[in-house]
Amino acid sequence: MRVQAIPAALAAAALLAVAGCGGHDSAGDAGDGDASATKAAQQATAGDFGDLKKVCGPGDAKSSPAQGVTADAIELGVFSDVGFSKNSEFVDTAKVFTSWCNAAGGINGRKLVATTRDSKLMEVRQRMLEACKEDFALVGGGSALDALGVKDRLDCLLPDFPAQVSQIQNQGSDLQLNESGGASYDRYPGYYQWLLKTAYPKSASAVGTIAGDAAVSKVIAARAEESLKAAGAKVTYHDLYPAAGVSDWTPYAQALKSKGVKGLVFLGDFASLSKLEQILTGMNYKLDWIDANNNAYGPAFLQLAGKSLDFQNNFADLSGVHPLEKAADNPATEQLVQLFKKYAPKAQPTLPGVRGFAAWLLFAKAASSCGDDLTRKCVYEAARKETSWTGGGLLAPVDLSKNDAPLNCFNIEKATSKGWAPADFKPDEGAYRCNAPTYKFKGDYGKPLTLADVGKSMADVK
Predict the structure, then answer these.
(1) Mean pLDDT throughout 27-39?
(2) Four-point Cα dihedral 75, 76, 81, 85, nearest 10
């Protein structure tokens, strides 16, 4: 497997372009701070989160049954491109979770020790080799070029509970518990059908895509176009923007107008999208809809887009993560907000951070069930038994018992000058619309790596 090197100017865009990556900043705050903080503190003592009881707590662990596990501690790795991106969301989330869990007693008395594996975009393999020598498992992280490390991870039999997965070779790879859906299934068929058949049916005749010119985003764009066509769209325009960046988005705006594009899927960084939209708005050209993708879900995009938000219709599918701006409506999300205020007051939860926290909860619940004999095999098999995982209420239910399964629920957000808010997509189960249509990709975009690819099997996992 060969991964194309990405010039620095586009690397941030490639990092952001990955479907499901999420934004850099919080989408908002909500709730009665004092009352919620008191409740969060009480739950911290009990080790409860959302509807999960005693996820963390004291115990009498005495043995050292696996690498990275002693009677006193569990060593865990957190992958992040923070040294390149300066985005600390996975590091912040790890700090919040481990602080909360350790305050409640740890995992059966063992303290969680999170080590940041800073892959700096291009150093994934180096950090993976280090993790292979020291960590019990990887939890709550992600790297844009994560395919660079998956072979080594499988070779050293290291379980992975990621916050996000970027490349096909890693998405749904063996020994991985991925809350974001299987590699062969599209995440967004319900979203696209809502845009094309319900909200803006006339847009289906002219849909366009723009993506960053990098290996990662090219694959995502190709999959998006296949999914759009399956949902009934006619893709009349597709383009890439260069690695060196774009000094003037006018030619792209003019091309969209000349092609009569009515719906646009933008797979790149939200700063570039905001510039494109400002030019479109200045030309008085309004699309029916723009899929800003969920990396734009946060206040930063709103600030950059400015007045164009009142003219263009920007949407994002959160793929079953409860919206942060509605935290007061969901006890688990509100508890997460309060835990950030307590343990990382200078940081704020983000969409990838929510997924990361849910991944930490999944690890903790599975590890707690293993008792003193905490092995990689036990924690992986315990987590794989979750058929309706919600992270205590942070997510719509996800079936983790299968390595390759579609998401069942989705939820759509709309960006306005007043903030992000749920779109009128007719949710039928709380904040979500469930029993969503599914679509399995037919194109050849690569496959996730397996233990067999490195000459091993589950029998080797101890």
Answers:
(1) 44
(2) -80
